[in-house]
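hiii, so i know i said id send this last week but things got crazy w the move. better late than never?? heres the sequnce for the chain we talked about at the cafe, plus the structure i predicted for it. fair warning i was half asleep when i ran it
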Amino acid sequence: MFSLARKLQNSIDYSGTDYRLNLAFDNVLLVFDVLKDDTIDDLFKVVVILDLLLIDGHELPDEQMVELYTLIMETVILQGKKQEVKRDLAGNVIEDDEDDKKLYSLEEDAQYIYASFLYDYNINLFKEQGILHWYEFNALLASLSDDTMFKRVIDIRQRKPNKHMTSEEKSNLMKLKQLYALKKSQEEIEFEAMDLAEKQAYIKQKMAERGE
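okay and structure toks below
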């Protein structure tokens, strides 16, 4: 939870041990890159992600390693979003008013996010790599003004044709929607992160097969 009354979280307690975390926004983005990489199996994803996030490493046995990954993703990276996100029967993210709403992707929209931070805040995100905290990044991202490119692209994805539009306006809107369509939304990637956490039994089985 983002709070101005407390320092930004940079560690997590697991089984009585305090693990320091690298929560620079660009490092967390690398975590999401790993999660959506279909060439990496689930077991190796957990190993790589912990290597990215834990500053001092770990010497945990297999089962506890998976538990620590789950704890970090649920309580630190996603901050309890698993309980807040609503999904339909097919697993698609749904909002209160609209179904299957794909809002944004931190990877696919990277250029729009970069330009919008520079426009609104005069922040060059490349210069903030290794500095800007993940929570700070998210707070700034959510507060971008409506005239930034990022928010304009999101508006296009959300907008629906209506009876007041001319045929030309509807055609132009559909072209824009195709231009800015996402392959995979950030919500879907976060869902995969928690889906991986829930595959603990499968991961343990893979570890056993490898004799680890």
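btw Confidence is low (pLDDT under 50) at residues 87-93, 97-101. thought thatd interest u
miss u guys!!
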